[in-house]
Amino acid sequence: MKKRSQIAEKYKWNLNDIFKCDEELNNNIEILKSYPEKLSAFKGKLGKIDKCLEFFKLCTEMSKVADKVNVFISLKLSEDLEDTKFLELSSVVSNIMKNISVSTSFEETELLGYGEKYINKLIKDVRFANYTLSLKNFLRNKEHILNEKEEILLSKAMKSLGGYSDVYDNIDTLDLKFENVVDSKNRKHEVNQHNYSELMESNDRTLRKNAYLSYLKGYHSLCNTISTNYIGSLEGDWFVADCYKFNSTLEMSLFGENINKNVYNKLIENVNKNLDLMHKFYLLKKKALKLPEFYYYDRSVKITNLNKKMSYEESFDTVIKAMSVLGNEYIEGLNLARNNRWIDVFPCEKKTTGGFCCNMYAPHPYILLNTVDDSRSIYTLAHELGHAMHGYLSAKNQPYETHDHTIFLAEIASTVNEVLLFKYLYNNATTKKEKLALLEKYLSNIFATIYVQSMYSEFEYYAHDLIEKGLPISKDLLNKKYKELNIKYYGKAVKMPKEDIGETWMRIPHFYRAFYVYKYATGMTSALNFAIKIMAGDKVALEKYLTFLKSGSSDYSINILRNAGVDLEQDESYNIMFNEIESALEEMKNLI
Predict the structure, then answer these.
(1) pLDDT tens digits for 355-366?
(2) How much is the pTM?
């Protein structure tokens, strides 16, 4: 693998746009250190409108500095995971941010103490226009606000409560070991977290089965530790929810983004009514692969492999063509990202793996890739550019205070790009084999994002419910439930191995972020709604989508989405998605 110094500059992000030198970074860290004292000085003074406005503006000023410092350090560590200098700076800044959090812990309690009438007066004051949603949230939160001492105590406890995720990461990354396996020709293969997905896509069925059994055995060897850790995490979630006077962890999770429980219920209800679509998909795969029985470890193998090589430059050109349906302003943004070094393109020594987009108000978003010129990299590029354009267009059209969209909306723009890319590639495919490969990938992604994430969500609902109702909970109960859900979701199309698959819930890190996974499913549903209408030439839908991209957090997420034409509390949005799946399945059937 190349060293970073061997990568051409045009393929590395330009962090000088944030800080031009170490001195500038260090000066900003020193400025950040001054905020706890400055902010705490406003305690007891928020009852005066002018002072309250001054405090809000100071918080904005602090956040702008903190964003630049945190993003810069994070991106430098992404370049080199072992950079001691930035590891130490990260720790320093983390402590500063903790002090800032403590220094502002009086804010909600004090403002609510002045009464609803006072807060409504602030809302009507035009000088507070950028803080309207925050002020509304103070009123919305009033039943869940603790007194100052309780807030400080709980904020200190949160660091320990977040430790379950860290423990899991260490177990999963460092402690978990898998036995080597052999393929049908008795050749040895190592099994690890990095190559497991690749092994499960192998055309060698013996290798797939043995790799899967090795994976099961690895998690079984640490099942007591992992399950005990997860149960502790569940108890921690419920402790926080209970402290803040919520009836459940789900309620607390939804409340943060003002999402009605109907949204969550409507997703699970609709997916459960249409499980037969996923069953049909795997029956088609079984037929195409000519397997007498289709096992759990056969799910990832491809019907056909293209292994089409495409350079980064070719990929970017293709993405621009695919996104041309979104109009000139969107394409201008893509070219800005390409030509002004927003993107770190290629893998190199010590660089973090995978891909991500880091949105920031100023100077612009940054994207990390690890492009290897294969057919997957183009989808990663389109996906991360979707995140970047969402952030870029929101920052361009919103003030700092409302530029950053919520997690609930975060995966929509990226997924729209993936769908538009698929449509473009499929419409321009010249062979049956290419069309089938593209269609299988498209459907696999839909089922993995909507169906499997809904299954995960049902599992975590069950687990949290046991804790919250004071019912018995154990690894055996969790394993039994997870096995039942797998049987329900995959149906008779997929045969379960005799070895217990129940323990495979232990491989999902997102379970340590309670009720996060359902947002992938609602995000994909929303994205399909947008993309299908745009591809049909609906100009009103396109305009609404572009407005969505520019909205940031100027309103509650569900309102932004509804105004853009997607209502996740109604069956219609799900019907559009299921109709798309049915159509794609019929096309896949014809190709097979």
Answers:
(1) 999 999 999 999
(2) 0.92
